[in-house]
Amino acid sequence: MSEETTGAATSTAELRRRTQELLAAHPPLETDQLDFLKARFDAGLAWVHYPEGLGGLGAPRSLQAVVDAELEAAGAPDNDPRRIGIGLGMAAPTVLRFGTEEQKQRFLRPLWVGEEVWCQLFSEPGAGSDLAALGTRAVREGGGPSRSSEAESGGEWVVNGQKVWTSSAHVARWAILIARTDPDVPKHAGITYFICDMTDPGVEVRPLRQITGEAEFNEVFLTNVRIPDAHRLGEIGDGWRVAQTTLMNERVSIGGMRIPREGGMIGPVSQTWRERPELRTHDLHQRLLKLWVEAEVARLSGERLRQQLVAGQPGHEGSGMKLAFARLNQEISGLEVELRGEEGLLYDDWTMRRPELVDFTGRDAGYRYLRSKGNSIEGGTSEVLLNIVAERVLGLPAEPRTDKNVAWKDLSR
Fold first, then answer.
1. CA–CA distances in Å: residue 121 to residues 71, 103, 196, 405
2. In a designed cystine with 41, which of 55, 203, 301, 321 is the match (CB 3.0 to 4.6 A)?
């Protein structure tokens, strides 16, 4: 059976019809951007593979491209996905999979239309690569005990701790948060996943100035932050499993972004090579050719990964894509600095700023070179991702873990 003749909400022709109806009822040039985005969400054309009533139609993920192409041709506004990337790429799929119906109805629409920005409160000063060692504590008040075997719904959780490397915390309305709720069990077992209100008076956000001069990252201090149990995602003590959904989607969103040929870091250096023949050398030519081919392989691999997502949740292959993304960005930006010679050593502006979004290819060659250094840290360090690929993709023996059955409270810190 062809896609044209499948069920009404899952056919290409039907999606085109629905999109044209949206455009007719809300002409992009005459409709406020936010109003248009809300209408698009309500029509099920936000992410067509989501359920009806949650911005989708239960259609195959692959048909999203049909809707996007029709809207782009009509000049319709998008939801500025770079600004709300954490919400779209990490929070939304986690809420969809583990959230209650009330949580899905409350959070997904304002998230997708961009009314509410999200951030991620995972990493800590003592728990970055070893995220499961986190020490931020959540203690339950009212509503029953804090262990999943005895848990009842209700009450509040009081959270105290510190998070670090938090992108967009200075503009975020909500955060996805993991905290330790049971220190008497091994580290992976005593974690619970929450949605945290960033406007709570106990949340303090401080900028972390980076080597670029900007402060897109932040450190976040949580002091007696009260989170209602209704904002818990998943079961008590099951936060590590919930977090895996977030992390796998995060790596896909970082390493598997859809870009055109010569998009990303390889674009500016290729353009410079074509426009500045006086800078060329044989050695630089060979290195550029090698990196151009690798960038194209990574781009096509990302397309394949997105096609695999049609069949379900992302797998650990996203870790490999994120690894390639970090390595290529650093090698390509280093080549660009060398190609430009003395120009490559210049830097345009060290002004302290707190940007709302990150443009990995923005500004000049110096910015790209410095900013790419963070690519091998954010979204999972390259060292951790190498272990994930080795163990979960290639099936190699796991590294010995002496703390696997030790209660978190008894670990050396």
1. 34, 19, 9, 26
2. 55
Which tokens sit at 374?
Answer: 């963070």
Name the E strands within 144-202: 156-163, 174-180, 191-197
Query: How many alpha carbons fall within 13 Å on the CB side of residue 251?
Result: 29
- If residue 243 lies in a helix (H) or strand (E), which one and from where to where? helix 239-255
Query: Which residue among 14, 70, 214, 250 is the active-site one?
Result: 250
Scan for tokens 């048909």, then name that residue.
63
Secondary structure (3-state) at 44 = coil
Q: How many CB atoms lie within 10 A of CB 266?
A: 27
Tell me the per-residue pLDDT of 55-93, one tens digit each, with 9 for 90 and over: 999 998 889 989 999 999 999 999 999 899 999 999 999
Phi and psi angles of residue 62, each rounded to the nearest 5 degrees, phi first: -60, -25
Using the structure block, give the residue that is written with the tokens 């782009």.
Answer: 72
140 in Cβ contact with 159 (< 8 Å): no
Tokens 């302290």 — which residue? 352
Half-sphere exposure of 203 (CA within 13 A, CB side): 22
- β-sheet bridge partners, residue 124: 127
State yes or no: is 303 an active-site residue: no
What does DSSP say about strands 217-228 and 191-197: parallel, antiparallel, or unpaired? unpaired
The neighbouring-strand residues paired with 407 are: 186
Model confidence pLDDT, tens digit, residues 214-249: 998 999 999 999 999 999 999 999 999 999 989 887
Tokens of 129: 């690569």
**296 Rama class: left (phi>0) / alpha (psi -120 to 50) / beta:** alpha
Name 121's bridge partners: 177
Max CA distance (Å), the chain: 73
- Rounded-to-integer distance, Cα 144 and Cα 151, Å: 6
Q: What is the pTM of this model?
A: 0.88
Q: Are 58 and 9 in contact (CB under 8 A)?
A: yes
Phi and psi, residue 154, nearest 5°:
115, 170
Distances in whole angstroms, Cα of residue 199 to Cα of each of 173, 227, 383: 7, 12, 35
Distance, in Å, from the CA atom of 360 to the CA atom of 368, rounded to the nearest integer, reads: 6
Contact status, residue 157 vs residue 230, Cβ threshold 8 Å: no
